[in-house]
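Batch 3, record 17
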Amino acid sequence: MSVDQEALVSTEGAGLYQSVGAGHHTCWYPVGLSSDLAAGQVRGIDLCDGRIVLFRGEDGVARAMLPYCAHMGADLSVGDVVGNDIRCAFHHWQYGGDGRCTKIATGDRIPGAAVVRTLPIEEHDGLLWVWWGDTPAYEVPSFSSFEGEWAVRTFEVPLTAAVHVEPWVFAANVMDFQHLKSLHNVDVGNPDVEWNDWGAAMKWSFSRPEVGEINWDIELFGTNSVRSVQPQADGTIIGHIATTVPMGEQGTKVFVVVVTNDLANAETILEHQAQMHTNIANEDMDVLSTIRVGKANFTSSDKKLVQYMRYQRDYPKATMDELERGATPVAMRT
Ligand code: FES
Ligand SMILES: [Fe+2]
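Prediction for the assembled complex:
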């Protein structure tokens, strides 16, 4: 995929503002809180146009795979964890973290095709991230590479309404400078945007009542995650990640991570940050819970938004069926 920045100046609407169609963008999706998956625990989750099962082995490592048992299709999320394997409830076939059947309760020979498709999974800042695709194309947005000690608060944002729009519609908010002003009372001007194959970067300066003056280095990852880093006058840093995940019938969920290395004031800072991000997300809800995506007429103030629309239109996507049939090797967290 490539983004031709020069060509990305357009007021065209048709074709740029449409549902992804079958499947979902190949992104890192936040599928839940680390704290909701204890060692020995199994969880089934509706993700994109399918389902996955998550389990944490007794070694503490989280694993993700498509949920349907290779024997007769039982959903492995009603199974249990045995050592570092997951065991199907129906006839006790057992699968390792690489998706291969390791044991059949009767002792029968294990068929070569007794394999369940695994998905790349990583854990950072209290979130479980699953890559919807084969090999991850970019790094999970996180603060893991930041040195020193950090205070972190990670939570699912309580939304005032169920939202069924695709995650890329949420993420479009960061390139929608018109709405920042009209809906959020945030004026970031018209910042320069640097695009790359799997995201974008820019700088925002604005103020919010919860926290005062803000100067963000802001990055878009894929079509569902935004990370900000704000250096403070005293040399400490405040950061956040806002990210969304499509969970089938339940709709699109929003998770937020707020961090700071100002440990002395961490509790107050994280509380204010969490409040602000919860408020901002909910300011969008009346619109996002009722919006119709499909037709648009963009104007000159939407220039960066149109760039984003082209970026998301060209972004790779996958259906669960394609993932299940895929022959490419999957990167495993070991
Ligand atoms: S369906 Fe899973 S063991 Fe038979
Ligand atoms: Fe918004």
